[in-house]
Amino acid sequence: MNMKNIKLTLLVLLLFQTVTFAQVKLSKDFNVTLGTPYQVVDAGSKEYFSDGKGYTISVKTKGKEVTIQRYDILSMKELSNKMYEDFPPYNKVQKVLQVGDKLFYVFSSFDKKGKKEDLYSREVNMKDGTFENPKLLFSTAKEVTVSSYGDVAAMSMFGLGAPIRFEVHKSYDNSKILIRYRLKPEEKSDAINKDILGFYVFNTKMEKQWGGEVKMPYTEKVMNNLAYGVNKDGKAYMLAYINASKQFELINIGSDLKTKPNKIDIDGKLVFQQFNLVETEDGNMNCIGYYANGMDVMYNWNGGGVTSFNTNGILSFKMDQNGKVLHKYDFEFPIDLINQYESKRTKEKNEKREGAGKAGINDLKLIDVSVDATGSTTIVGEQQYTRKEMVGTEMKYVFYFGDLVATKFDKSGKLLWMKKLPKTQSGVGGDASSGMIIGGSGTATIPPAKRGMSVKYMKGKDASYILFLDNVKNADLGIDEVPERHKDGRGGFLTAYKLDDATGAIEKHSIFDITDIQGTEAFQFKTSRIFEAADKVFILEVYIKGKQDTMIKMQLAK
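^ that's the sequence the OP posted. Answer follows.
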């Protein structure tokens, strides 16, 4: 084939693709509006909030610089953009916290001389998009260690998400705020060291109610900390697993800074990755988590092994403040659900494992738990895992975001519906040859880097919406068909699964093509930048050409 024929063939293929994608029917559930562009703000951390009055506030952190932007949802225009640098030295954002009509920027400042941390809050005036003066909340006794890692939107060395030293929790009614941290261990050995944790409780004005540092009743080797929370009375609590006795415990922490362990009557043989622990309206506590009957070890072609969490079902239980279980619901995944959208080989393997009660869904992570006015609970989970793979000529970390599982049950524990939603996304991270994730073509993290992958869960009036970026080839794919994999950074359609609240009936909606949103191409798409700006109104900020950002409004038509 000569060069002229090759060019002609390529042109025909491009025209065919253009015609094919142009025929995609966009959803009538969403009215899409493109906003007026404004100057881009480069920042590692970008967070978005609604004031409930038709305006939004963006808080963007880049090192020592914090920019506050105010935006009008109706006119779709930026109203103000103000940058601040007047912060104490060695400061790191820990949380941007919305409580009612107030917004607080919580940050730490390392005292290099005293080798301790000072924690501050700084209120954002949502009416004009400005900062108030910083307020010192408390100082720690000594250096604080990392408790967790935030979204990969903020980066640290080795590609981990932004290190969080101070975790923030709110009570059910949003009247109390708990700030928790962990001091650097006194002993290096887990068999000797007993963690010293800080617990500070504040009201909605960030006024301290009580606080201090508490030594745990068990050593690190004996005790695994699973979840933390605070109730409307200002009492802190934590869920722990005691390895020696294979027992779950609810540990209460009061203003006297004493711990009170309470045994919980839950099967200690079950394995949990995480728990959602929240106070209920009646003052008791709901605890929800995915459980496994064990862990799997998977081997790849080069002989390397990786541990996989084989999720078998959902455990939900309610307990009083002393750890007494009031009711317990176990929703085991049926084999038909487990096998849905799987290969023939995987189905055969699952059938064999089902006989031993071990068939499950690998690496399912809890994404969202919501309770409606009737007391019914909706749970959304997503497969998330990381693998070392050869990409081109280099060994890389590849991050996978797979199928979704959505479940709803009523307040009496009756299962209303359970659905598996097909999805497959992947993104390449850093160099894997050294055994460290260090950031490469894209951003790497542990847990897997979201970037333009994973999902955003939104609640409508009579339905739930799960938004994600999908391969253009899947735009007109039926709900029962296995989708093509979407690769991060390669365009795609913003897609939504619509789940009917009453029946769980599924609809798939293509909202827009990010390479052509009413004539504008979006770059640097990140799922985390989708937020609810008002009732039935979702907003997404994207980067466009000319060093500009813009907002895209998606308004539910019903």
